[in-house]
Amino acid sequence: MSFVTFSYILCLFAMHTFFASYYMSVISVPESLFGQTEWIIGFIVGVMGITGMLTRPVVGVLIDANFPKKLFLIIGAIGVGISFLGYSSTNNLFAIGALRLLQGTSTAMFTTTLSVVVSEYVPTTKRGVGLGIFQSSSALSQVYAALFAVWLIENFSLETGFTASALFAFLAGIFALFLKIDYNKTHSKGFDFKNAQWISKHGLYPFLIFTSQTLTFGAIIAFLPSISQARDLGNPGIFYTVLALTMLVVRSLSGYLSDVIGRKLVIVPALMCSTFALILIAFTQTQIILILASIFYGIGFASVQVVGFAILIDTTPVQYHGSGLATYTNAWDVGGLLGGLAIGILIEFFNFTSAFIFCSCLPIFALFLLRKIKLD
């Protein structure tokens, strides 16, 4: 595979370590809020999406204008590391909320920029598999990050878990330092901010389709520990480990298949898998069914994420990749915010089962949006 260069490999390591810090936090942040009401947990977990939603469009437009990508990567990694160190030193809800805003801003900056950078390394004919391997590097961190966080918290302390997350984030910044990133004068020449795409017209439908996944993922992150405790389903970290193993395989495979048989022939059954998985989560009373749900959810989420990424790059002019990916990756922030907050409210008024039945309808809605996208 000709695209596997030194810089591409560095992108894989940067992606992996950055998301290791994130997936450790899906255990440690809710754990630090134990005892709070469900809507407060949902709000604090999801609030990082607010600044992410504001940051990504700005970063995307600045990337289109050829601002230095490496600077965004370094600032993003440092900001996330600082937020984790802050979590380890406070129990104040307002302070934790402020740190989540910092984490959201920094995460948006890092992930948007790295996605643009790696897309420049991958040729059109290998786009699906190249982006799939890139996304798989983050899935690899899921294999151990959540369980590692549980182990650190149980054997040492919550503060130790947050410190380890910070170290992973800083390591991602170090990998980014050595990336070879070309400055393209052609793209920046004559750039007019008045015509900037703050919301990409090319990325809107892929964004909405991917949001059908991130909303449900945000709900799972916020409330799986509570569901596991209420239904005696065991260690929730097992769900994330099985999910990660599934994604590790499926992201590369789905990307490869989309290169061979077409994007839509892969993404349609993927959305159906997500719906089935969410129905299983809604009704599960045993750990075995929860694990089965994690497999189907991993197939659906991973395939939609990778193929949606490839569809966006396929349909977006290269000079607008920054704003296009900013819009697409904003799905993470919308899902993180509304997935925790909205589903938390549904749980307060109804129950876990009703809330996740609602979640299962979202991928079905995405199937109708997929028809709006025209591919060559």
Task: Write a compact overview of the structure shown.
This protein has 376 residues and is an all-alpha fold. The protein has one domain: Growth Hormone, Chain: A (Up-down Bundle). Helix content is 81%, strand content 0%.
| CATH structural fold name | Growth Hormone, Chain: A
SSE string, helices as H and strands as E: HHHHHHHHHHHHHH
Cα-based radius of gyration, to the nearest Å:
19 Å
CATH superfamily: MFS general substrate transporter like domains
Distance N terminus to C terminus?
A: 24 Å
Task: Indicate the CATH architecture.
Answer: Up-down Bundle
The count of helical stretches stands at 14
Key descriptive features of the protein:
376 residues
Can you put this structure into words, describing what you see?
- The protein is mainly alpha-helical.
- The chain has a single domain (6-181, 195-370), classed as Up-down Bundle (Growth Hormone, Chain: A).
- The protein is 81% helix and 0% strand.
- The protein contains 14 helices and no strands.
- Helix 2 (38-46) packs antiparallel against helix 9, helix 10 runs antiparallel to helix 11 (264-283) and helix 10 packs parallel to helix 12 (287-315).
- The protein is globular and about 55 Å long.
